[in-house]
Structure formats: C-alpha cells, structure tokens
Design a protein that fits this description.
Layout lengths: L2 H14 L22 H26 L14 H9 L1 H20 L8 E5 L9 H5 L10 H10 L6 H13 L2 E9 L3 H10 L7 E5 L8 H14 L3 E7 L13 E4 L9
Helix pairs in contact: 3-4, 4-7
Amino acid sequence: MNLARLLVFLYLCSLVFSEEQFNPHIFPRPLILEYPDNTIETKTTREFDNELQLQCTSWRFAVEANNLNPWKTIPQECAEYVRDYVMGRGYQVDLERVYNEAGVYAKSVELRGDGMDAWVFDVDETLLSNLGYYVDHGFGLEVFQPAKFEKWVEEGSAPAIELSLKLYKEVQDLGFKVFLLTGRGENQRGCTETNLINAGFQNWDKLILRASDDHGKLATVFKSEKRSEMENEGYRILGNSGDQWSDLLGFSMSARSFKLPNPMYYIP
C-alpha cells in the first residue's frame, strides 16, 4: 500500500472510531484519488483504428489498381474512410497528380496539325462531380440504383471537377479534338449538354452517349466500339481520361490513358 492510500485509510479509520457520525455518501476532505491506468485500453483502440485505416487504404489501392473486381459497394467498415477521402485533401491531391501528369504529356505530344489528333474524356467523376448525389447515398455504401441516379442527372446540377476543366481547356488550346464519351443514355443528351455548359465545358467536338442498341453492353465494350469508330474515321486517339478502368481498357486504346481516382463505385 503506497503512502497516499495509507493516509486515506488512517483518516477514514479515525472518522469511524470518532464520536462524529460517519456518512458513507460524503467523501471526507482532503481526499486523494488514483484513477485506473487506461494506457493499455487506449493503445489497443488506437492500434485498431490504425489497422482499419491501413486495411481501407489497402482496399482503395486495390480498387485503383484494378486488382479488386467486380464489386458492388464499398466495405461497410470503410464508409467513414471513403467519406473522409473524397471530401478531404487526399482526393484533391490525387486529382492534382493526374492533372499534372496528363498536362505534361499533352504538352509533349507533337500534333500533326491536320485536326485528327483526339483526346477522349469520360463525363461522370471525370468532368462532372456527382459527390452531391453520393453524399446522400453513403459514398458508395448503398447498392447503385439507376432510377435514383438518373433523377440526379436530369437535375443537371453536377459541378465541374476543376482540375479536369483546366485540363480540358488546355488540350483544346493545344489543338486536340475533344470527344466526350459517356455511359449516359441518349435520352439524357439535353440535360447532360446543359450541365456541361453550365459547369464551364464548351466547344467539344462530339458528345457520344449510349443509343438504344448500346444498352446492355458492358462499358468496356461500348466505349471500345466508339473509340474504334473514331479511328475508322481517321482520328488518332492520343489521350484518354476516365475514372473507371472500363473508360480506358478494351480495344482501340489511347496512346496514353489517365485514370482519375474513384473509390465509390465500379463499372465493368
């Protein structure tokens, strides 16, 4: 028994054996209290949080490297991690990296000057940000519901991803033809064009959407076919920007492709 506890014990004993009535609900003064050591518990909690952070970071890396597919929703335990990432500095830093690399490449290309050098851009999560929609749908925690997303698209309120808008303008100024290739349906052309224009995207050369006979095709197949049509028309696809691997892979691929980060959903 240490000295502090011994003093308290002796003081209490003196009260018990004194003529004064002892009230066990009132602590005598002065009283020295020693709190239990929570170091082990705190350390365990901290280690668990660190491990979860590492696991979710590893999961996101696997998503971006296309090592984890197909998947329908983000892991339940990573919901907070994904939210903090896409709403925070990490997402912006990754976008900056993609923008910088794409910009350096675009400036390094020697265009032929015949108007046939092209750059292809996806729309959703590449030019336009749908974070406003995913804020209300768990940042990918919910299974994707096409009807709800189409309603969001029709509102036409998605803002530009600012660094993509900057790259878009730069490649236009360099002399690239700009093609927008999206998995949105042809019935959404009007609201898509209006949204793009209001967000700052102007003077694209062609906006390609899914026609009725394209529905049911995997995105990889649909976009490959449309790139093939561009090549058959004589265009050279020198750059391609998208947030999904299905925007970039397949056939008639670009000379260089640039994937924007997106851990919220996967489109095959």
